[in-house]
Design goal:
72% of the residues lie in helices and 0% in strands. The chain has 81 residues and is mostly helical. The longest helix has 31 residues, at 27-57.
Length: 81
């Protein structure tokens, strides 16, 4: 191990740690697992955000999205009063 970390857990964080530890992990293993999972989720969200920005910046993609919205609107049931 290259780094040691000491934290004070609030009630919600302590409960979250217990949830992660349910597989029999030690505190250290649980924290490492949670950090890796959180980092993976952030990478995915960042990639999705980048893809959406590219699509929004592309006139061809915007036109395709407009057409799809119109087609879906035609399929939608009429509004209920």
């Amino acid at each position: 191990m290259t780094r040691s970390l000491h934290v004070r857990l609030d009630e919600a964080s302590a409960a979250a740690l217990e949830l992660v530890r349910t597989g029999g992990l030690t505190d250290s293993e649980a924290v490492r697992t949670a950090l890796r999972e959180a980092a993976a989720r952030r990478r995915v969200r960042s990639a999705i955000r980048d893809e959406v920005r590219r699509g929004a910046a592309d006139p061809g993609d915007r036109e395709e999205m407009r057409i799809i919205r119109e087609q879906l609107g035609e399929l939608a049931p009429p509004p209920v009063d």
